[in-house]
Amino acid sequence: MVERSRSRRPTIIDVAERAGVSKSTAARALAGSSNITDETRERVVKAAAAVGYERNHLAVGMRSGRSGMLGLVIPDIANPFWAEVARGAQDRAARAGASLLVFSSDWDPEAEATHLRTLRRARVDGAIVNPVSDSFDDLDRFGMPCVFIGSSAERYPDISSVGSDITQAVRLGLDHLMSKGHVAPALILGPKSRLARARFLRAVHEHFVERDLDPGVLAVEDGEYTVEGGREAMRRLLAQPRVGHLAVFAANDMMALGAMMAVRDAGLDCPRDVSILGFDGIPSGEFAWPGLTTIAKPGRDIGERAVEGLFDEIEHRPEHRRIYMPCRLLERGSLADLSVAAPQRIAGAGRN
Prior knowledge:
This is Ribose operon repressor. It is built from 13 helices and twelve strands. The strands form two sheets. Strands 2-1-3-4-5-11 form a six-stranded parallel beta sheet, sandwiched between helices. A six-stranded mixed beta sheet has the order 7-6-8-9-10-12, sandwiched between helices. Helix 7 (166-179) crosses helix 8 (195-210). The termini are far apart. It has helices at residues 12-19, 23-30, 38-51, 57-64, 80-95, 109-121, 166-179, 195-210, 227-238, 253-265, 284-287, 299-314, 338-351, and strands at residues 69-74, 99-104, 126-129, 146-149, 161-164, 186-189, 220-222, 246-250, 274-280, 293-296, 322-325, 328-330. It is of the alpha/beta class.
């Protein structure tokens, strides 16, 4: 056997020689061909590892028509929720031997369109996209399989999509607030241009109407889905006349954490003076003081399911349906329990 130069990249011939098989057998074994015995496949894989051989995915892609790359376009990589989505997508893609290109649109339709053009030029096999605009004009020109995620995906019923069950999540949050004695919480929502805001507010209204309560009494403040957006919205709520304890249900955890900062800025205490419920379940909520009680969306699971749906699209076996994933309550310390406190106050007043 001729000794291989250290400066030369290992080839499939080196693998075949070390495994004692033909070049074609080595290639078929590494490609996952079904007509190779397990013993031979194992021998070839060990030989490839021993000589440091890596498959030329570009050449493989040229032959198969696949690049082995997927795209992911999310609205805000700085938001830990979307980072969790990206992590789930990356993990699932890696298990299938695929690579993931991640882009953040920063809620900008023009940036989103630029990222989509980049993905087309990169010849990815498909992409997962959270569309940030009402009209996804590039869809017909996208030219590749895709799966949508996020609330905006509902605008496109003919495209497979994965997202949180917002109605279930909002009801879960409101039921928990009511169980704690917070019957009419104020709402901190996103911009009016976002479908997520409309879905959240619709779920709130339906929940109240079903219980013969008037949703019109709820105070509502809008803001960007950021810490500063929640902080400013909370400042406006605190400036409004009110009687008794204030409870707030924020549309995401970043806004909820900003609201907690505004409470401290005003010299008030959470949850003694103001109760706050978040929505997302980002890790930083656990480290706030007090810990943020929140409705946790399954970000990592959404990423994984979206990649699985994209593989179905790539293999031409899509179901074109919307997958709604349930959310769960994370109980921490940011909600006062008025259902317990109120009777104690009444009893105390009677003794005086």
